[in-house]
Each structure stands twice: as structure tokens, then as C-alpha cells.
Design brief:
heterodimer; A: alpha/beta; Rossmann fold; 5-stranded parallel sheet; about 40% helix; globular; B: alpha/beta; 2 domains; 7-stranded mixed sheet; 5-stranded mixed sheet; 13 helices
Chain lengths: ~280, ~300
């Protein structure tokens, strides 16, 4: 653990994050719950423990950077930013509404704490590589964390970016694959099998770990290992996750990629999330 | 307004980034394995800490440039016009224009200039594509000295800029002490009968046409519209008011380039006599540059002919 937070504390926070995700998507009547919930434990560990950031000074030049390459899952990032008080919590009720800082996909010009605007898949990792390269060249010790979807990894640009990270030995870059096994149209296996992503990342020159992306202990241990590592390679974590994690009727259901819960579904979902189905 | 033998504007680009980097450690070049063609090899040798080569991966190059720009660097992402305007167009839209980051897209081989390479390498649509993207600035220098000036100006200009260069040597028109400002047309010849507006190396044809017309007693206003976005509307409005007609000339598709930009101003203000000269919405082929231009009516003779129709 980086900031002496207990795993129990992070598990509690993950419940708040999931609650916030569901609340904002329900209010907006649109958004992407599936991929937000699958990456909720990873982002909780990052924002509440691993990232060296300052919500009072979002543009602090020594901060760790975070890039949500799978930008459609922004409700999870907005939830973390709201709970970290980057902005007033009630802003979550403006998601996807006209004039909101919380656009349908992350907008760095509007929302404090967003290091790069994303939304078009496959592009965020390249930007993360540029940020990490700048740190190396400037001899600064901030790190860059980038969450990529397994569906998103269909994009060739992801692999161009990984090659570049390897070439320049960006050991200050952590690529996290949210391997939730589903994409927009169907399962990844059906649409475009990603095969063994960990092996691919290895072959492209990363130092790769395979973890359960919902076990907080495994997530924090993976980060511990990276911090202790002396290997001059970009780091990759393949986090095996479940799309819609924490809400029984959303889990592993393709349709919940981009659909908001109605009032009844929202009520059940909140009960399930607060009931602690999370992180077990 | 004299024409001299010149050098390719891509060479000016290579020299400009060297001069910029000498005084600014934030100047970066991101190459896509065509640094030799784009004249960035000296930069990579003299400033290895400010140089990145991502290989033949243009989409990634733009993203890496955007990432560098978030930390205060001024990256020049370098490739050919065809790839810079199409292979990485959506990346430019998402990560440079929407974000208004300080990414410069520097492209050699604009228009028909990679003549013998054939249609695959002739970027004739580049400026038109970028005109549609909000926050983009489009600059096509006419010759070596103006390219040197405008590349340096682009480094100080806030936001994304597309810079278009030529592969082959182009005639020199400017001197090293001439001043140019992004977004402001440069008047090379004062005149009130007809106005010729050019962009890029085609300006040399405008100069020759103007000289010929002046000999025949026709007074020509010649404008170098090196920045086609944002367009210097005031210069166009003055030409509408003060001359009998406007002829635009460009080495670019007739759709959505300089001619279209000027036409929009002409049409919305009640207009004047007006003619666009450019590539007739058709691909080129492997052929001498001047032949490709002539086939599309981009010639001194045609400019002269069209100008006379305005009188």
C-alpha cells in the first residue's frame, strides 16, 4: 500500500464509487455502467491509494497522470474525482447535461482532474506514452497510469503505443487492461478474440502481471510490486474483471454496456452494491 | 516581387526546428520513419533528448505528441501531407483540436509536389479536411524564407497548427528580413484592377502572372494567403471592394481549399467576379509536377486568362 490505507478502507470506498456511478447514470438516463463497474475497484485503488495527486491543485506538475483510454467508462473516473472533492459532489447529477463539466466522455478543458480528453477508443494509451516520455526526458519522477479496455485493444493503435513504450523503456508507465470479456456488440470472444493479452503484452516488451481485478489485495499488491521493480520496461496489469460487477442483473450481460437503469432497477442495484457484493 | 531559384520548403522546416530548439528545450520532433525525407535528421542528431521516432505509426505519433504537449512541450509531429491529414486525422481532431493542445503537424509532400511518387503520395485534400475541424490553423508557406518564418511563428502560436511543405525546390520570392504573421495575408503587389490570391508554392505562378498582366497595363493586387484558416477575411473584403474581381490559385483540390474559403466570403458579402484555379477534383499520377498542374489549369497562362475575364 502506498498511503497506509487499509484494504478494508479501499473496499468501503469502492462501494461509494459504485453507488456514485449508478446514481449519475440513473440521473442522466444514459451512460455506460458495465465498463464503469468492471473498472471500479482498479480506479478506487488508484485514486484512494496509489496515485500521487492533489485535488486542491489538479494541474500540479509533479502529479501522477491518469488516462482513461476507455473514455466511455468515465462515470467511474467522475465518481472518484467527486469523492476526492475535485469538484462539488452534486455535480454528478449534471452528467451528460448541457453545460456540465461531466461530458458524456472526459473533457480536460471542462473537468478538473482529467489529464487528457478521451472517448475515441485506442488513442489514450499513446497520449499516456507521450506523458511518460516527457517525465523521463525531464528527469521527473511522476508516473502515468492508463486503463485500457480489452475490447478497445482491437484498435491497432494500442499496440503501436505499447511498442513505443517498450522502445523508450518507460518503466514509469503502468498499463492496466480491464479485461471484462465483453464489448459493445457481444463477447470479445465472439466479436474479436483477444487471445492471451498478457502474453501479447509480454511479447511487446512489457513486465506483465495477471490479477483478479476485483480483489483489492491483488490490485494493491500488483502496484506494490511495480513500485519495487527495477526492470526498465513498461508495466502492464491484466485485470480479470466482470462487466457490470456488483449488480447481479448487469454482471456479464452485454446489453448493460451502454444502458441506464430505470427507477426500479436502480433501487435494486443500489441495494446490492451497498449490501457489499463488491470485492468479495 | 522578383523570383529567384529556391529550395524545397521542407528544408526550411528542418532548419527552423533546429533554430527553435537551440533556444528552447521544449521543442520536440516526433518522427514516423520519414525523418530523412522531412529533413529532421539533423534535429535528431543535435537534439536526441527532444526527438522521438515512433516508426511507421502515424496515429500513435499524434497521441505521443499530444501527451508531450500536456506537459508543456511543443511537439512537431512530422510526416507527409497524405498521412498527416488522413491517417491521423481523427487523432488530431480528438487529441489536438478538441483539447486545443500545442501540437504542430508538420507535413512535407503537400499537393502534387511528390510528383513522380504518384497519386498515393500526393496530398491534395489535406487543407480541405483540416478546414472542417474546429480550432485548427492551416499554414502553407510559399518559399524557403517564408517557411522558415512561419514555422518559427507556429511555435509561438497557441494551439494546433498544420504546416504544409513541398518536396521539390520551389522558386524564392521572399527575403530573409520579410515579416509574416499567421492569419494575415501578405500583399506582394498593390493593384486595383484584379486580385490574385495564392497559397503555398503556387505563389510563384501568381508573381509571374502579375508581372505579365502589369506589362499589359493591368494593375494586379497579389496576396499570399499562407494561412487559409483562420482566413484573413479583411484582406478578401478589401479585394472585393477595391478590385474588379478575384482569382484564387492553389495546388490543392478545388473543393474546400483556398478557393472555397475565399468563395465563402465572396458569396456571403454580395460578391464580385470570382474564379477558383486548382486541382479539378481528380487524382494525379506519376508525372512531372508542372504537367500535373497544367492538366488542371494551374498555370501562369490560365491565371492571366482568368484575370483578364474580370476586367
Amino acid at each position: 500500500m502506498r498511503q497506509d490505507n487499509s484494504v478494508e478502507f479501499l473496499k468501503e470506498k469502492a462501494i461509494d464509487v459504485r453507488t456514485t456511478i449508478l446514481t449519475m447514470i440513473h440521473e442522466a438516463k444514459s451512460g455506460h455502467p458495465g465498463g464503469s463497474l468492471s473498472s471500479a475497484d482498479i480506479l478506487t485503488a488508484l485514486y484512494f491509494d496509489e496515485l500521487n495527486i492533489n485535488p486542491r491543485n489538479p494541474k500540479w506538475d509533479k502529479r501522477d497522470r491518469f488516462v482513461l483510454s476507455k473514455g466511455h467508462a468515465c462515470p467511474v473516473q467522475y465518481s472518484c474525482l467527486a469523492l476526492k472533492e475535485y469538484f462539488d459532489y452534486d455535480e454528478i447529477f449534471t452528467l451528460r447535461k448541457e453545460g456540465s463539466i461531466l461530458q458524456g466522455h472526459p473533457d480536460m478543458k471542462r473537468c478538473p482532474g482529467i489529464d487528457i480528453s478521451t472517448g475515441s477508443l485506442g488513442q489514450g494509451l499513446s497520449v499516456a506514452v507521450g506523458m511518460a516520455l516527457a517525465a523521463k526526458r525531464d528527469k521527473k519522477d511522476y508516473r502515468v497510469f492508463c486503463v485500457v479496455g480489452d475490447g478497445e485493444s482491437n484498435e491497432g493503435q494500442i499496440w503501436e503505443a505499447v511498442e513505443t513504450a517498450s522502445k523508450y523503456e518507460l518503466d514509469n508507465l503502468v498499463i492496466i487492461i480491464d479485461k471484462n470479456r465483453l464489448q459493445n456488440d457481444n463477447t470479445c470472444e465472439f466479436v474479436m478474440p483477444s487471445r492471451d493479452i498478457a502474453k501479447k503484452l509480454d511479447a511487446f516488451g512489457c513486465e506483465t502481471q495477471d490479477i483478479d481485478g476485483h480483489k483489492m489485495e491483488e490490485i494493491t499488491q500488483a502496484f506494490d510490486k511495480i513500485r519495487a521493480s527495477k526492470v526498465k520496461k513498461p508495466h502492464a496489469i491484466v485485470a480479470h474483471t466482470t462487466k457490470g460487477r456488483g449488480v447481479s442483473f448487469m454482471e456479464d450481460v452485454v446489453a448493460w454496456h451502454g444502458m441506464a437503469p430505470n427507477d426500479e432497477q436502480f433501487e435494486i442495484a443500489l441495494k446490492e452494491v451497498k449490501g457489499g457484493l463488491v470485492c468479495k | 516581387m522578383q523570383i529567384r531559384e529556391g529550395k524545397p520548403t521542407r528544408e526550411a522546416y528542418g532548419q527552423a526546428v533546429l533554430e527553435l530548439a537551440a533556444n528552447d528545450s521544449n521543442i520536440y520532433v516526433v518522427d514516423c520513419d520519414i525523418g530523412k525525407s522531412c529533413k529532421t535528421v539533423p534535429f535528431s542528431q543535435q537534439f536526441p533528448n527532444q526527438h522521438v521516432n515512433v516508426g511507421i505509426a502515424e496515429q500513435n505519433a499524434l497521441g505521443v505528441g499530444a501527451g508531450l504537449a500536456t506537459t508543456g512541450k511543443i511537439p512537431f509531429v512530422t510526416t507527409y501531407a497524405v498521412f498527416g491529414s488522413m491517417r491521423m486525422l481523427e487523432q488530431i481532431r480528438q487529441e489536438a483540436c478538441y483539447t486545443k493542445l500545442n501540437v504542430k503537424i508538420a507535413c512535407s509532400h503537400g499537393g502534387f509536389t511528390p510528383a513522380n511518387d504518384g497519386a498515393s503520395h500526393q496530398g491534395i485534400e489535406d487543407m480541405g479536411l483540416f478546414r472542417c475541424v474546429p480550432n485548427m490553423t492551416i499554414v502553407a508557406p510559399a518559399d524557403f524564407d517564408s517557411a522558415l518564418k512561419l514555422v518559427k511563428a507556429s511555435a509561438k502560436y497557441d494551439g494546433p497548427v498544420y504546416l504544409r511543405f513541398t518536396r521539390d525546390a520551389v522558386p524564392s520570392i521572399y527575403n530573409s528580413d520579410d515579416e509574416l504573421e499567421i492569419g494575415k495575408a501578405n500583399e506582394l503587389n498593390k493593384g486595383n484592377d484584379v486580385c490574385i490570391i495564392c497559397t503555398g508554392d503556387i505563389l510563384s505562378k501568381g508573381v509571374l502572372a502579375a508581372q505579365q498582366l502589369e506589362k499589359e497595363g493591368i494593375s494586379v493586387r497579389l496576396l499570399d494567403m499562407h494561412t487559409i484558416k483562420p482566413l484573413d477575411k479583411d484582406a478578401v473584403l478589401k479585394a472585393i471592394d477595391e478590385t474588379k474581381g478575384i482569382v484564387t490559385v492553389e495546388d490543392h483540390n478545388i473543393i474546400n481549399g483556398l478557393g472555397s474559403a475565399v468563395a465563402e466570403v465572396v458569396a456571403e458579402t454580395g460578391g464580385c467576379k470570382f474564379k477558383r484555379i486548382g486541382i479539378q477534383d481528380q487524382f494525379g499520377e506519376s508525372a512531372p509536377y508542372e504537367h500535373l498542374l497544367a492538366k488542371n489549369g494551374v498555370s501562369v497562362e490560365n491565371i492571366v486568362k482568368e484575370c483578364k475575364k474580370m476586367l
